[in-house]
Amino acid sequence: MSKPLKQIHLAAHFPGVNNTTVWSDPKAGSHIEFSSFAHFARTAERAKFDFLFLAEGLRLREQGGKIYDLDVVGRPDTFTVLAALAAVTEHLGLTGTINSTFNEPYEVARQFASLDHLSGGRSAWNVVTSWDAFTGENFRRGGFLPQDERYSRAKEFLATTGELFDSWRGDEIVADPATGTFLSDAKAGSFVHSGQHFDINGQFDVPRSPQGRPVVFQAGDSEEGREFAASSADAIFSRYATLKEGQAFYADVKRRLAAYGRTPDQLKILPAATFVLGDTDAEAEELARDVRRRQVSGATAIKHLEFVWNRDLSAYDPEGPLPDIDPDVQDHHIAEGRAQVRMYRDPLATAREWRELAAANQWSIRELVIHTGNRQTFVGSPATVAGAIDELVQADASDGFILVPHLTPGGLDAFADQVVPLLQERGVFRTEYEGPTLRHHLGLAHPDDVRNEREAS
């Protein structure tokens, strides 16, 4: 008997962070005007996507003491934008990154519960931590937490917000819908929490939201991140969008769920993915090369190399050879607030590998960065891209993808009009939304139903 087809989950990330977006393209628009967010969200909803994802940065990043000129200059507040988008969409999920290192459980729970009410049950929270003191300088608790404490705080933060959401459980709170007065003796919103990181008690003032709790996303590839996702998240962002690596990540994270009394369908795995479409595969390949060259200017290439070398390389020609000097491996990093610095855990080994690649292919600094940087995930005609997405999902390399177009705000339009219909024809993507909440879109049970099932068993 053949295996039933998996339904593909698709989402859209509003681009702009790092050098993903091609700002030089005449079709590129604003990253701060609401019209850009509205266009992007309406396109995603027209295509029946699960959700829109909005990242958040708590400080503009610097390199060499100057604002990184390829970063987003001006980043509006996540909650404000998502609340505004709730008014111009009806079905699309609204996902935002909110930091657990520099916020407090009560305020975050209150904001997400409010957004869930405003949107009719479409909110989601991407829980992240922050490792750098550079960002911490913007907050009263300046500084940073070691990795084990970051995840310890994040787990308690998430558990505490859950207690706040659950303080208005529907089976315990009974009210007269006409007057709003309580008919039971239950004290709505009452909570007490005492732990390592938080010691709070009081009353939560936002009633139970349509989803019970917002959907929880987590992004992290470390051992701690994978375990955190398996224990507490509804979905995890993955950096693995290829078959072999994707299948290994998928199997590893899904395997961990059983230890927490969870089943594989209770956690969705969604890698980020870029795409370039053309009328033919050859045209798309040519366009992809052009996009990569526009994403990686000479200045960008030098800045990227500085992430590894941890030195000022501004005197080097981006069209010339790599530096002979070795990376500086001291703890201070030239790129303040750049998470990428931590991606290269052995800069000396990375430098050796890159020199070998450059020598073997006669690449300049810029050519090396173009070839070793983030490549487009899906390149080809609409039929080719639809087939590639379907193949990876059916092979359990992912449950779907979060698409990151290289143009703002119209970069999603062609995918919505040309690829989505082909996935629908294959029977692997919805033609209409199945329900009103984001949990419906993702095939996730209501938290109360999960709790009741556990108690019954």
From TrEMBL:
Keywords: Flavoprotein, FMN, Monooxygenase, Oxidoreductase. Residues 24-395 form the Luciferase-like domain. One of its GO terms (molecular function) is monooxygenase activity. The keyword Protein transport does not apply. Its EC number is 1.14.-.-. Signal peptide: none annotated. It comes from the Bacteria. Coiled coil: none annotated. This is NtaA/DmoA family FMN-dependent monooxygenase.
